[in-house]
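[recover] target loaded
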């Protein structure tokens, strides 16, 4: 049998078809390939088509290889696409529940075909690992079928993962799925000193968690329990107690922050065409602009949009506001852009890294998506938090209560224009208080990415772990094979003996 150090790892990577998941998957694929792994990364055909159209790379055809430049640099990384079970022109956002049912019940058949073809190909090295997004319901079944190491990639913080992982504890204690819903502080989740019910992921806050999204997410987290390994885009030094508690249950590797490197600029990751905001930002004083974005998925209501717009009209702060074309572009008050043209810029989408890394940016009014949180810390941009759904409430707790690098936008979930204007103006004048904590938190990210940092150590240990598991699977397979052969020989001998009598 081949020595462990000589084993070459080949991983299939499959992200959930959402902007906030595709980005860390692509960044992780580059990172793992740079450490010697062979990677085959898979997008759905519809996502690939959107990436191409957004970047004007092609007319949306499926034959463009987004990793060609990375391969020229010596990385062994392949790219392929797969049907999600729906026609390319099917309106997934407009038929959300139907689409989710398809991901729940149909998509796994397409994945099975793809993985089977890759496993049975003559690729060298052979496929040995499946790295699937935790928000899939099928990885354990497919990994078992093809004898692959099952690696679940959690793209959110460890605090959100452990909240889902211990939902049975929440249910038993009446903090989830109970008619007598409790609102007192939660102290019983391992590795978590205390968390308020309002800081749990939104799907654990719903009094009637029976919809398609609840069923899908809870089934995916149930499947993640069967994974061999969990990898997470978080930082050991920022969530040490939570991660330590999870590591007592299952191998859990904090590999974050999983940021882009030099190759990623040549790889399309945005689903919308980017507006060039840099010339406008160049005309603004240092630290004077508020960047406002609620991410690639969350939709704020029409009323919230109007309150936000009127709050910005009342405010004195300059701003860039991302209003996605699939959401509320036509809901802004009439003449809004004319009224704020000297100090405001409204765009349908932009390169967030280019914006928040610009010296003119003084703050980020954010939905608290996990990528946005990590990027804001890296570029030392204070956050004004308005979470909308899923892990964003949990992320807000980390930003505001734990690390103290941001403030809450409003006391509740309802926006009021006067409160928005007041909070934005006060935030921009008091942001320096947060920058002290941002400086310290940024240093932890720098350290974890350094030569002796935890992230680098965890990558090394993960690779050792995976090679060991592949060897173990090979031994088990070999033992099963010889056991089967011995059984067949025994049956043949018995039959032959009886016949001879």
């Amino acid at each position: 049998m081949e020595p462990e150090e000589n084993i070459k790892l080949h991983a299939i990577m499959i992200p959930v078809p959402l902007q906030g998941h595709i980005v860390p998957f692509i960044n992780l694929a580059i990172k793992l390939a740079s450490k010697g792994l062979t990677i085959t990364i898979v997008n759905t055909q519809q996502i690939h088509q959107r990436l191409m159209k957004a970047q004007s790379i092609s007319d949306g055809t499926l034959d463009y290889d987004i990793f060609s430049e990375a391969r020229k640099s010596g990385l062994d990384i392949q790219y392929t696409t797969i049907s999600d079970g729906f026609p390319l022109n099917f309106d997934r956002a407009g038929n959300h529940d139907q689409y989710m049912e398809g991901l729940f019940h149909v998509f796994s058949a397409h994945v099975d075909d793809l993985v089977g073809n890759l496993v049975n190909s003559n690729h060298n090295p052979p496929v040995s690992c499946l790295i699937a997004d935790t928000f899939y319901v099928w990885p354990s079944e497919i990994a078992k079928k093809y004898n692959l190491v099952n690696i679940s990639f959690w793209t959110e913080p460890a605090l959100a993962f452990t909240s889902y992982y211990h939902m049975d504890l929440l249910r038993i204690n009446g903090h989830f799925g109970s008619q007598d819903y409790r609102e007192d502080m939660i102290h019983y989740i391992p590795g978590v000193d205390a968390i308020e019910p309002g800081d749990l992921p939104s799907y654990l806050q719903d009094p009637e968690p029976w919809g398609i999204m609840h069923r899908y997410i809870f089934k995916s987290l149930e499947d993640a329990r069967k994974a061999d390994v969990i990898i997470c885009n978080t930082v050991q030094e920022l969530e040490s107690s939570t991660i330590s508690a999870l590591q007592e249950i299952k191998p859990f590797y904090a590999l974050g922050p999983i940021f882009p490197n030099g190759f990623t600029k040549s790889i399309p990751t945005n689903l919308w065409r980017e507006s060039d905001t840099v010339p406008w930002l160049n005309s603004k004083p240092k630290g004077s602009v508020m960047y406002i974005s609620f991410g690639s998925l969350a939709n704020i209501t029409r009323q919230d949009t109007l309150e936000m717009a009127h709050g910005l009209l009342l405010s004195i702060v300059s701003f860039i506001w991302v209003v996605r074309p699939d959401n509320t572009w036509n809901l802004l008050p009439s003449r809004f852009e004319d009224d704020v043209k000297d100090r405001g810029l409204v765009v349908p989408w932009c390169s967030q890294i280019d914006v928040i890394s610009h010296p003119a940016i003084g703050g980020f009014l954010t939905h608290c998506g996990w990528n946005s949180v990590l990027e804001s810390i890296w570029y030392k941009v204070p956050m004004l938090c308005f979470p909308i759904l899923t892990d964003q409430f949990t992320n807000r707790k980390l930003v505001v209560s734990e690390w103290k690098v941001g403030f809450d936008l409003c006391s509740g979930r309802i926006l009021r224009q006067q409160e928005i204007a007041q909070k934005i103006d006060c935030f921009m004048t008091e942001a320096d208080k947060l920058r002290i904590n941002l400086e310290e938190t940024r240093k932890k990210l720098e350290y974890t990415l350094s030569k002796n940092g935890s992230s680098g150590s965890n990558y090394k240990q993960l690779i050792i772990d995976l090679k060991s598991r592949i060897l173990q699977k090979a031994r088990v397979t070999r033992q099963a094979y010889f056991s089967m052969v011995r059984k067949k020989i025994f049956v043949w001998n018995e039959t032959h003996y009886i016949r001879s009598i």
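[recover] notes: The first strand starts at residue 10 and ends at 14.
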